[in-house]
Write a structure and sequence with these properties.
This protein is 36% helix and 15% strand. Among the domains are: 92 residues, no CATH class; 44 residues, no CATH class; 140 residues, 2-Layer Sandwich (Nucleotidyltransferase, domain 5); 67 residues; 112 residues, no CATH class. The longest helix is centred in the C-terminal third of the chain and has 28 residues. The chain has 721 residues and is of the alpha+beta class. Helix 5 packs across helix 19, helix 6 runs parallel beside helix 7 and helix 8 runs antiparallel to helix 10. The protein is built from 20 helices and 20 strands. A hairpin with a 6-residue loop joins strand 16 and strand 17. It comes from Oryza sativa subsp. indica (Rice). Keywords: Metal-binding, Zinc, Zinc-finger. InterPro entries: FAR1_DNA_bnd_dom, MULE_transposase_dom, Znf_PMZ, Znf_SWIM. It holds the Pfam family MULE.
Length: 721
C-alpha cells in the first residue's frame, strides 16, 4: 500500500456548486483550470464525424447532458457523496468529450477503508504481449498509454474529492455520432438488463435485441447494446482439433459412440454430429417425436449448437444427438439429417418440430418425407417479439393474446374467428409478417395438428420445460465450457430419468377413486407423471353432458358438451371391440384417452381400462424388450450401412438391458465370441470362392468417424482436422 493521501484544504465553491439540499453536484476548487491538450499529442481532437459536422468542443460550465448531469470540466476539489456519483459524473464528461473510462487500482487505510482511487481513460496502459501461436492473427488492442485520469481522495465519512486531474489524451477522440458505442456508455439499467436476460433465455440474438431496443429508444444513439457480427465463421483449427479429440476419446471409451464430420470444398471442417448408444436406444423407443432447434449459440463465432431433442415416458426432455453447424444452409441441413438417420438405423420420426426456416423446411421435405413437419410454437412467439415489437411496446398484453390464438385447438372455424379478432384489435391487417404466418397456419396452429402424433410436445409446459433444461446453452460459451456443459446436461437428463423410473416402479399413486378398476389399471401401467395427467383428464369427464345421436348395431355416436360452454365433441363407440374414436383426436396426437372418450366409456358402463388404449410409450416399462431395425427393404451400399447400424443397435440394447447381471453379460459375451468366429469363417469361404460383391471391405461408416464433403465422402484419419 502506498503512502497516505492528504486531501486539499481548499473548498471554495465555483460556478457548478449545488445549492443547499440540491444533491451531491461537484464543487470547483480554487485551483486554475488544467492546461489545454499539448500540441504534441497526435489526437488533439475528435475523429471526423460520420455526419460531416465539425468536431464538438469541450462542454462549458453550466451545460447538461441528456441524463441531466452537469457537463462541468473535472476540476481539483470537486466533491461527491459516493463512488457511483463520482463515476457517473466522469463518465458523462467522457461521453461528451469522446472517450471511454474504467476504474483502476485503489489504496486503503490500515483499517481497510478506502482512501484513494483512480478513474482512467480506457486507453491507459501498454498493449498486452500476444500469446497467440505463430501464424495466428494477433488480437487488436485499444491501449495507447494514455495518461488522462482522475484521482480521488475518500474521507472517513465517504466523501469523494477530486485530488488530481489529467485531461490530455494521446489518441483520437470519438465523434458525437459514435459516443454511444463507447464501452463505459454501454451500461444497462436493471430494467433493461432484465429484458435482455429474458430475451437471451428465449434465444433472441443480440442483433435482433439491438433492433428492438433501437425502436424502443427512438434512435441507435440511445441504445446500450452494439449490434453483433452475425457472419458465420468456421470453427478455429485448435477448437476443431479439441472437438475431434473429445469425440475420439468418447469412442475409445465406448465403441458404440457415433460421430461424423462434414468438410467443405476447401477441406475445412464445417459441421459436426455425434450421439452415443444410450441416445440411439432412447430414439428407438421415443423417437416418434423429435424437436430440432438451431437457436443456440456456443462461442464467440456464433456457431449454432443444434440438438435433436425428444421426450421420454415421464415427459422429460432427452437428447438423441447433438451437432455444431457452420451455416444454416440447405446443404448443411441435408447432410445433418441424413447423418442422423444413418445413426438411427433409418427410422424417421412420426413428427419433427423445427424452426420456421425455409432451408430447414426444404431439407425436412427431402430427408424426412414420411414425417409430419410442424413449426415450433415457441419459436413463432420469439419471432413475434422481433417483428411486432412496435405493437408490444404500445400494447403489453398483445403477446398473451397472441399465444392464446396460436395454441387454440377447439376447431378450425373458432381459430379463424379468434385470429381475425386479434388482427382487427391490434390493426394488423396490412402486416406482412402476420399475413405470411397465417398463410402457413397448417404447419404450426395447434388446431391443425390433429393428424399427427406429437406426444404432448406442442404444449406450453413442454416447450418451456425443454427451453429451461437447455437454457445454459443460450450463453456465449467457449468450446471447453460447451463440452463441459453438454456432459452435465446429458448426465442430468439421464439421472432425472433414472430417478423418475425408480419412483414410478417403487411407489404407487393413490387413485382419485380407489376402487375404480380403470384408475387402478392406469396407476399400475403409467409412469407417475403420466398418471397425474390421466387422472386430471379423468376428472373432467364429470363436467360433460353426454347424449346419444345415433346407433347402428354395435356402433353408437355421441355428442358431448361441457357445462356452461358451446364447445362440442363427437365420439363414436363400438361396443363389440370396445374401440372409441373422438373428434378431438387427443389419443391419436398424444397417446392418452381424452375426457370425451372416457365419458362415453363411463356412460356405457365400461369401468375397466381397455388394454389396447394403454400406450406402451407412456408406461413404466416402455424400454422393455429389444428394439429392431425398421428399414430392411433398402438395397445397395446404403442398406449395408443401415444394417450394420441396426445390428449394432440390437446388440447394445441387449447389453444395456442385462448390464446389471454379471452372469447374463458373461453368457452374452461368450455367445458374441462364438458368433464372431462363425462369421469370420463364413467370410473366409466367401473370399476364397471369389463370390459376388462380398469382399469383406469396410464401408467406411459404422459407428466411427465419417468426413463427408458436399460432393464426396472420405474417412477421417486419426491425425484430426
Amino acid at each position: 500500500m502506498s503512502g497516505p493521501v492528504v486531501p486539499l484544504a481548499s473548498t471554495a465553491q465555483g460556478p457548478c456548486e449545488p445549492s443547499p439540499g440540491s444533491g451531491p453536484l461537484p464543487v470547483s476548487a480554487a485551483a486554475s483550470d488544467p492546461p489545454a491538450p499539448s500540441s504534441s499529442v497526435p489526437a488533439g481532437g475528435r475523429e471526423p464525424s460520420a455526419s460531416g459536422l465539425p468536431p464538438a468542443v469541450t462542454p462549458q460550465l453550466g451545460d447538461h447532458d441528456q441524463g441531466g448531469l452537469p457537463n462541468c470540466v473535472p476540476k481539483v476539489g470537486m466533491t461527491f457523496n459516493s463512488e457511483n456519483e463520482a463515476y457517473d459524473f466522469y463518465n458523462s464528461y467522457a461521453r461528451n468529450v469522446g472517450f471511454s473510462i474504467r476504474k483502476n487500482h485503489a489504496n486503503t487505510r490500515a483499517d481497510g477503508s478506502l482512501c484513494s482511487k483512480y478513474f482512467l481513460c480506457s486507453n491507459e496502459g501498454q498493449p498486452v504481449a500476444s500469446t497467440t501461436q505463430p501464424g495466428r492473427k494477433k488480437r487488436s488492442s485499444t491501449r495507447s498509454d494514455c495518461k488522462a485520469r482522475l484521482q480521488f481522495y475518500i474521507s472517513q465519512e465517504g466523501i469523494w474529492t477530486v485530488q488530481k486531474v489529467e485531461l490530455d489524451h494521446n489518441h483520437y477522440l470519438v465523434s458525437p455520432d459514435k459516443s454511444h458505442m463507447l464501452r463505459s456508455q454501454r451500461r444497462l439499467t436493471p430494467s433493461y438488463q432484465q429484458i435482455v436476460n429474458e430475451m437471451r433465455q428465449e434465444g433472441i440474438t443480440a442483433a435482433d435485441m439491438q433492433r428492438v431496443f433501437r425502436q424502443w429508444s427512438r434512435g441507435a444513439e440511445n441504445v446500450h447494446l452494439l449490434k453483433k457480427d452475425t457472419q458465420r465463421k468456421y470453427l478455429q483449427p485448435s477448437y476443431a482439433q479439441k472437438l475431434l479429440e473429445y469425440l475420439k476419446n468418447k469412442q475409445t471409451k465406448n465403441p458404440s459412440f457415433f460421430y461424423a464430420v462434414q468438410l467443405n470444398d476447401d477441406g475445412r471442417i464445417a459441421n459436426f454430429f455425434w450421439t452415443d448408444c444410450q441416445a440411439i436406444v432412447d430414439y428407438a423407443c421415443f423417437g416418434d417425436v423429435v424437436s430440432f432447434d438451431t437457436t443456440f449459440e456456443t462461442n464467440k463465432f456464433e456457431m449454432p449448437f443444434a440438438p435433436f431433442v425428444g421426450t421420454n415416458h415421464h415427459k422429460q426432455p432427452i437428447l438423441f444427438g447433438a451437432s455444431l453447424i457452420y451455416d444454416e444452409s440447405s446443404e448443411s441441413f441435408n447432410w445433418l439429417f441424413q447423418t442422423f438417420l444413418m445413426a438411427m438405423s433409418g427410422k424417421q420420426p412420426a413428427t419433427i418440430f423445427t424452426d420456421p426456416s425455409a432451408e430447414i423446411i426444404k431439407s425436412v421435405r427431402l430427408v424426412f418425407p414420411n414425417s409430419s413437419h410442424r413449426l415450433c410454437l415457441r419459436h413463432i412467439c420469439h419471432n413475434a417479439v422481433k417483428h411486432l415489437n412496435h405493437v408490444i411496446c404500445n400494447h403489453p398484453e398483445f403477446l398473451s393474446d397472441f399465444k392464446r390464438r396460436i395454441y387454440e385447438e377447439r376447431s378450425v372455424t373458432f381459430f379463424d374467428l379468434k385470429w381475425k379478432e386479434l388482427v382487427n384489435a391490434y390493426n394488423l391487417d396490412g402486416n406482412d409478417w402476420m399475413n405470411n404466418l397465417y398463410a402457413m397456419r397448417e404447419k404450426w396452429a395447434a388446431v391443425y395438428s390433429r393428424d399427427s402424433f406429437y406426444a404432448d410436445m406442442m404444449t406450453i409446459q413442454n416447450a418451456e420445460g425443454t427451453s429451461d433444461a437447455l437454457k445454459n446453452f443460450r450463453r456465449k460459451l467457449c468450446l471447453p465450457e460447451f463440452l463441459e456443459e453438454y456432459e452435465k446436461c446429458i448426465t442430468s437428463f439421464r439421472q432425472n430419468e433414472l430417478e423418475a423410473d425408480y419412483n414410478s416402479r417403487q411407489t404407487s399413486p393413490v387413485p382419485y377413486v380407489p376402487d375404480l378398476p380403470m384408475l387402478k389399471t392406469a396407476a399400475e401401467s403409467y409412469t407417475r407423471n403420466l398418471y397425474s395427467h390421466f387422472e386430471e383428464e379423468f376428472k373432467k369427464l364429470f363436467t360433460l353432458s353426454c347424449s346419444l345421436l345415433s346407433q347402428d348395431r354395435t356402433i353408437s355416436t355421441y355428442k358431448l358438451t361441457p357445462l356452461n360452454s358451446e364447445e362440442e365433441a363427437y365420439v363414436v363407440f363400438n361396443s363389440e371391440d370396445t374401440t372409441v374414436s373422438c373428434s378431438c383426436r387427443m389419443y391419436e396426437c398424444t397417446g392418452m384417452l381424452c375426457k370425451h372418450a372416457l365419458r362415453v366409456l363411463n356412460y356405457s358402463n365400461i369401468f375397466t381400462f381397455p388394454s389396447h388404449y394403454v400406450y406402451k410409450r407412456w408406461t413404466k416399462y416402455a424400454k422393455a424388450g429389444l428394439f429392431g431395425c425398421r428399414n430392411n427393404s433398402q438395397s445397395g451400399n446404403g442398406s449395408s450401412m443401415l444394417r450394420c447400424a441396426c445390428i449394432s443397435q440390437k446388440m447394445h440394447s441387449v447389453a444395456l438391458r442385462y448390464s446389471m447381471s454379471e452372469k447374463a453379460l458373461q453368457f452374452l459375451e461368450s455367445g458374441v465370441d462364438k458368433l464372431t468366429c462363425e462369421v469370420e469363417n463364413l467370410l473366409s469361404h466367401i473370399n476364397l470362392n471369389g463370390n459376388g460383391n462380398d469382399t469383406g471391405q469396410s464401408s467406411g461408416f459404422c459407428n466411427g468417424a465419417m468426413a463427408e464433403s458436399l460432393g464426396h465422402s472420405e474417412s477421417m484419419y486419426s491425425e484430426g482436422a
